[in-house]
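Now read these lines:
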Amino acid sequence: MKRIFVLLTIAFFLVACGDVKVHEDVDEEVAKDALQLMDVVTKNVDKDILYEDASSNDKKIVDTYYKKYLGEFSIKKDLYDGVNEDILIISNATAVRYEQGITLDTEKDDLKDSEERLKEFVKTGKGYDHNDDDKEDSEGERRSGVSSEIIDDASELVKLIEELVEGNTGFEELDEEGNDYKLINTFDSNGYKEDEEEYSSDEDYIITSLDILVSDYKLYGVEGLVDGLKVDQDSLLTKIESVNFFINEAEE
């Protein structure tokens, strides 16, 4: 009986990880959960299926992952380092982005890149910080902590967008010479680090979710968009909550 249970466990693990062989330096639970999440999200995004329209089973996988690694009562948060932390940086950002709504073609391309990078980390056991002399575009040094500038700017930008959304004011209605327009339009997700640097995991969560919020707000109220690109008030307010959540987490 015990042998059967072990075989079933192994079979489940292989199905969850697909054709990706997990490196010995990678935590198997992290690999399974991250790969399963990426598989669900990429499958649905390829079919233009938003989180709210996903099947109950796919939603459960995303929700379970979120609670396990990102939720308020998560016991896995900040538990890992090295390549396992790097894998979770990708999968955590993916979970947040999918719940917020990945709609633009550029975001879909970014998702494919993230999936390939995550699988590479799982297979090689090497994350962002590894030294590979043969790789010309190797990643830079990962920062620690959270820049006060990022927190201050993110808080200001989120507050502004929230006020505009609650006032039902779209980006196209703003005065191009006004401060509100300039603050939103000049946001640069890479503007808080040097070229050779990588954001810390907490900074990455804030910047990624804020970048999605800004991109979606620019579509808010725009006429003539196809259904897949339309952005409503409720979805923006949900994204605002997500950014505020990551800001509050970083400040604690």
